[in-house]
UniProtKB/TrEMBL annotation:
GO terms for biological process: negative regulation of neuron apoptotic process. This is V-set and transmembrane domain-containing protein 2-like protein. Pfam families: V-set. GO terms for cellular component: extracellular region; membrane. SMART domains: IG (SM00409). The keyword Ribonucleoprotein does not apply. It comes from the Eukaryota. Keywords: Disulfide bond, Immunoglobulin domain, Signal.
Amino acid sequence: AALFTETPHDMTAQAGEDVEMACSFRGSGSPSYSLEIQWWYVRNHKDWTDKQTWASSQLISPPEEPGKEATKISVVKVVGSNISHKLRLSRVKLEDEGTYECRVIDSSDGKARHHKVKAYLRVEAAGGPGHPQDTEL
């Protein structure tokens, strides 16, 4: 079955830090078909209450709900059955806080299926109150 083999995690960063989010996906079909991975930034999800349901409902159709303020950050396409792409954010700013979404378009059987996972990035002002567990490298 098609599935995410690595998903991004919610994280907290200090302003000015570099952040990395990983997303890997394994398709279900034979080895030579098209996979596309996209990173999106969604601004209006500060108050997400249904976090638990996001990862479990990975197969989403239709592809996107209208009205969300989302920005495509990057796209990578491969021919094969595995794809992975790390999103790297250098020297994050307070306005980088928000929801980051990894979308995979799996065209293994001739029709595109959309898969999504999301993670929330919280950015704290440099020198602000930090928690020891949030500063692990």
